[in-house]
Structures are given as structure tokens and as C-alpha cells.
Design a protein that fits this description.
By secondary structure, the protein is of the alpha/beta class. It has seven helices and eight strands; from the N terminus they run ααβαβαββαβααβββ. It has one domain (about 5-245): Vaccinia Virus protein VP39 (Rossmann fold). Helices cover about 35% and strands about 25% of the residues. Helix 3 links the parallel strand 1 and strand 2 (about 90-95).
């Protein structure tokens, strides 16, 4: 009967457990999650451009999400939720691992931000719809990607904006993200499973199946002297925005 139980076939339990074990180190910029701290400003630059394009009246505002509701799916310990709150949004963060939600809530309280955090699968939570939905580095950890994206789309308001990022499934990402990055400790061993990565074309087709159309897409690349940056090179990682078709 359709997707009545889709939410129990999305995030694999072992994936949630893996990241839950890292919860207490999530905010340590030099710890196991250092790579997330380095990529966060790059993602935020894309998100700000996407906000300005989607809501042109917000382009010159210091807090362009004022009066808008934002949802971060797979929020971890809140690395993206907190800057979204500072942009003015009323933010909800959802994560499959209760340990991550606890770490996120404690950190937000410590810095004086009012963010609602909830543990569980997004498809099982009765939380309504949101003007902005973000889902960064999550879909590659999902077993049933079409079911997960149905749940994501259901959380998006009719005129809402979706932003997603994920590693590409290429020879380059297999060498750099899974091989070299884990070998040198840039990401914890077991973070990435290359066969579960999604190409931009595949993700665009999956989004189309749930009634969403891609509005912008950039690669997230790295090079010596520049570090991580938005690029036309999508071979390692990419970020996109989408809206209802």
C-alpha cells in the first residue's frame, strides 16, 4: 500500500549507530569530524545564494530567513542548524541517532540558540512542512533512497526550497573520499560506502520522481592553496537546490 511504512527503510541502523558514537566529538573542529567544519562554510555560501535566488526580497537582508521555518534532516550535532538559526529561521533538526540530538541541543543551549531537535526518522515525525529543507551528506547513508526522498519532499512547503549535498560516485571519489581520506584520518574509517553514492544525474531523476526540479548545482572541490570551494567540478562532492516542479 504505497509508502505507508517508508520511514522504516531509510537510515540503516548501523549507520545511525556509527555516527552516534562520534556525537561527543562533533563540535571539535580538530577532532574526528574536522572535515565537516571545513566544508560547512562552503555549503553555507551555496545555501545563501540559493536563498537569495529563491526569495529575491531576502537578498540584501542580514537575516534572510526571518519568519521562515527551516528543517535540517540528518542534522548530526547541529553544525548546519546553528547558522540557519542565525540567518533568522525557526529551525528544527532531525537525526536518527538520539546521541546526536542530545549533543546538538546541549550545544545550542550553550550558545543561546533556540533550536528544536528531534530524534527519529523524518517520515515518522508529525512536524508539518518547512520553507527551507536541508539534507547534507545523508542520502548516501540511506538504504531506500526513493522512499527517503518521498519523506523529504513531504516536508517541503509548496513554495519551499530544498538543498542537498552528497558525494558523487566516481573513480575519483572512490580514491579520495573512501581510500585516501580514511587512510590519513581526514574522516573516520567507515564513514563512506562508495557503492551507495549517488551521481548528480541519478539524484536529479530521483527528485523528479517526487515532483522536485533542480534549480542550481555546484561541485565541492579541493585544491592546494584554496582548500574546499564551490566549483564546476562535481567529481568528488556536489550540492544542489530544488523546488517543486
Amino acid at each position: 500500500m504505497g509508502n505507508a511504512n517508508v520511514s522504516n527503510v531509510t537510515i540503516r541502523p548501523e549507520e545511525a549507530d556509527f555516527f552516534a558514537q562520534l556525537a561527543h566529538n562533533w563540535w571539535d573542529a580538530k577532532g574526528p569530524m574536522a572535515s565537516l567544519h571545513q566544508v560547512n562554510p562552503v555549503r553555507l555560501a551555496f545555501i545563501r545564494d540559493a536563498i537569495d535566488a529563491h526569495w529575491p526580497e531576502a537578498a540584501r537582508a542580514a537575516r534572510p530567513l526571518m519568519g521562515k521555518a527551516a528543517l535540517d534532516i540528518g542534522c548530526g550535532a547541529g553544525l548546519l542548524c546553528e547558522p540557519l538559526a542565525r540567518l533568522g529561521a525557526g529551525v528544527t533538526g532531525v537525526d536518527a541517532a538520539p546521541e546526536n540530538v542530545a549533543a546538538a541541543a546541549a550545544h545550542a543551549e550553550g550558545v543561546g540558540l533556540d533550536i528544536r531537535y528531534m530524534a527519529g526518522e523524518v517520515g515518522r515525525l508529525d512536524i508539518g512542512t518547512f520553507d527551507l529543507v536541508t539534507c547534507v551528506e545523508v542520502i548516501e547513508h540511506v538504504a531506500d533512497k526513493p522512499a527517503f526522498l518521498r519523506d523529504v519532499a513531504a516536508r517541503l512547503a509548496p513554495d519551499g526550497l530544498l538543498v542537498m549535498s552528497t558525494p558523487n560516485r566516481t573513480a575519483a571519489s572512490r580514491v579520495l573520499l573512501v581510500g585516501a581520506a580514511e587512510a590519513v584520518g581526514y574522516v573516520p574509517k567507515g564513514t563512506h560506502h562508495w557503492q551507495d553514492f549517488v551521481t548528480p544525474d541519478e539524484l536529479e531523476a530521483l527528485l523528479a520522481e517526487v515532483g522536485l526540479t533542480v534549480t542550481a548545482k555546484r561541485g565541492i572541490a579541493w585544491r592546494p592553496g584554496k582548500g574546499l570551494h564551490l566549483s564546476d567540478d562535481e567529481s568528488i562532492n556536489y550540492i544542489l537546490s530544488a523546488k517543486r516542479a
